[in-house]
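Journal club prep, notes for RB
We'll compare a predicted complex against what the paper describes. Inputs for the magnesium ion case:
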Amino acid sequence: MSELNHILIGRDHSDLNKFGEAGMGTIAKQIVGEKQEAHLTNPVKIDLSRPHIIGLFGKRGQGKSYSMGTIAEEIMLLEDDIRNNMSGVIIDTMGIYWSMKTPNSNDAKLLAEWGLKPQGFDITVMIPEGHEQTFKENNIAYDATFSIKPNYLNTDDWALSFNLELDSEMGIVLQKAMRELYEEIGDKEYSIDDIIKYIKKQEFSGSAKDGLINRFIVAKDWGLFSEHGLDIHQIVRPGKMAVIDVSHFTQASGGWSVKSLVIGLLARKILDERIKARRMEESEVMEGANGKGHMPITWMLIDEAHQFLPRDGMTAASLPLLQWVKIGREPGVSLILATQMPNKLHQEAVSQADLVISHRLTSSKDLDSLSEIMQNYMKYGISDYFDRLPRLKGSAIILDDNSERIVPIKIRPRMSWHAGGSPIAIKKNEEF
Ligand SMILES: Nc1ncnc2c1ncn2[C@@H]1O[C@H](COP(=O)(O)OP(=O)(O)O)[C@@H](O)[C@H]1O
Ligand SMILES: [Mg+2]
């Protein structure tokens, strides 16, 4: 049974009886008292071993990316036998999570107050194959590259990545060209040049053809495509945390829509593999065997999530992520969606979030969408909860589904280095 003074979030009674606190991570302490009087008390643990959709909110600079790192650390700190059934993928939009390899020695004193020590983590930083040169030139370390074969993308993916409406002129040319290409090449491999060839063949006057060809020429420069393709099992590995650095897809090359494409493809592949693995796990259970499926239960941690799963409009990540949100529980995929604008995050994702951690928010629209989720638990108006919080970085409120109340917390300091936040006079390639 749990110790009474631990606040356990996201674990139901039957799991608590069966597993106690195994597979949970201590991410914070409860804050008791208000503002300057506030002090830290009970450890706050969240369940990391069942599928969850975690909403992680807060206005800029309040600690979202930092907290996401804290949760990633807790996943990595789970007992071996649990962690090895799991895997994590951090979508790193700003190129800040490489630093998790380095112990946070700057905060050794602070960590000691929490009974913790600085520690680096064995993460795998992966970059798009075509970005190697840039990383080398800037002396930024990485561990591996990934790339995508053009035939992983269907017509919809291309249209979404190029921000094209399918019923626009370019969209129509794209559909016709892709249909012919599928008819003639079928499931075989093809390159972007093959697609361009099929676009050129289309009888279509006006600028749509040239416009579309240009988009594909630009796509070749994204640095994302190669004949090597993506082996999802290199990214999602039991007991490991991959950091997918998408920070170098610049605005000029398509920016957020290319990042969305990467996330969408990863999410789709992982879900497919998990569905297969789940079937195997179940038949193994039925046959009394003790084997494991190929693809571990996976956490995907997404910063700036409103860019990928927006309330209005669609990105190439929208449908795959919505699948995670809607049916992820059964195959065992979990999401952390961090955003400074919950109001801009897809309605379905907000309403399906079963764990909500929110740093301070001030805009009334964002407060409204938060109070929609929290309304059944609220004793006061939502902004009262934030007013009571001490003005400390990392303070937040969390929904406690067990006790059905909102608990003020302070997220624990990072054991590993946090490279986000305000600039520090430190270079990425220096030893520190
Ligand atoms: N739990 C925490 N403990 C200590 N410092 C924190 C904590 N959370 C955030 N900070 C500090 O606040 C800064 C900004 O946090 P960050 O996560 O980058 O903000 P956001 O992603 O919300 O814009 C961090 O660089 C760090 O210095
Ligand atoms: Mg951030």
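Talking point for the session: The radius of gyration is 23 Å.
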